[in-house]
Amino acid sequence: MSSVPCPLHATPADPRFAIRPMTPRDVDIALDWAATEGWNPGLDDARPFFAADPHGFFVGTWEGAPVGCISAVAYGDAFGFIGLYIVCPQWRGKGFGMRLWNEGMAYLGARNVGLDGVLAQQPNYRKSGFVLAYRNVRYEGVASAHEDHADGATITDARNIPFDRLLDYDTRAFACARPAFLRAWLSQPQEHARALAALDGDAVCGLAVMRRCGTGHKIGPLFADDLSTARALYRALVCVLPGETVFLDVPEINPAAVALAVEHDMQSVFETARMYTRAAPDVPLAHVFGVTTFELG
């Protein structure tokens, strides 16, 4: 966290506090803060996060030193997502967080905006026009090998599939197309991440990524046409990590996704409120077995 001394009487209007767009280095700092908060980001999140929208990351500074941040990623002209909303502990309660919030929301403008917020903050988000859509539940488990992981599906390295086919599948399971992010997400260093696709004949019927984090590994997205395909992808991912910790962020509104976590002896450890400023996007949540990230949707 920031080691800059915090004046006792700092106020939101103090000219020593300023907001500017993040550089890639600033994103690294923000993710270090997220790790300190216990959010357990991926080791290589910075590059794909920034690729999603290089103009949508903001840092608050005191006399030039970073003290807070927010991401407000614009996915095209209609949809955006708020995340990485952090003010260093010694700088909280001075109004700087609200200035960062207003900056991010102003950048997203008239778009439908989503977020995954801690449950206790729902009243504050409602004041900004957000409405609860459903809850996402983080499940934690231990990876193990399963001889029957294929479950009849053809599982392959996602890099073997033309990108436009993966993008088409991802777009149908997300709120809109996110080509820059997806390309970077699928190409994370192989020593830290795996990206798999499921095929039904020549058709893509599932897509999943697992990445190494400060603690364990997170799976996201886990998109699949049905539970059988989701199970095949999950098992194909974790079978190479027996005994290691894995996390899966599940839309509680999808009972098949909850069943997948439960059948692999995963335990609920955290929940978020998925909220939007307008109606929830028309996403087939029955195909969403794992959220990509709580920071970017």
TrEMBL record:
Every N-acetyltransferase domain range: 17-162
InterPro entries referenced in this protein's UniProt entry, alphabetically: Acyl/Acetyltrans_Enzymes, Acyl_CoA_acyltransferase, GNAT_dom, YitH/HolE_GNAT
Species per Swiss-Prot/TrEMBL record: Caballeronia glebae
Bilayer-crossing regions: none
Name of the protein this chain belongs to: N-acetyltransferase GCN5
GO function terms (MF aspect): acyltransferase activity, transferring groups other than amino-acyl groups
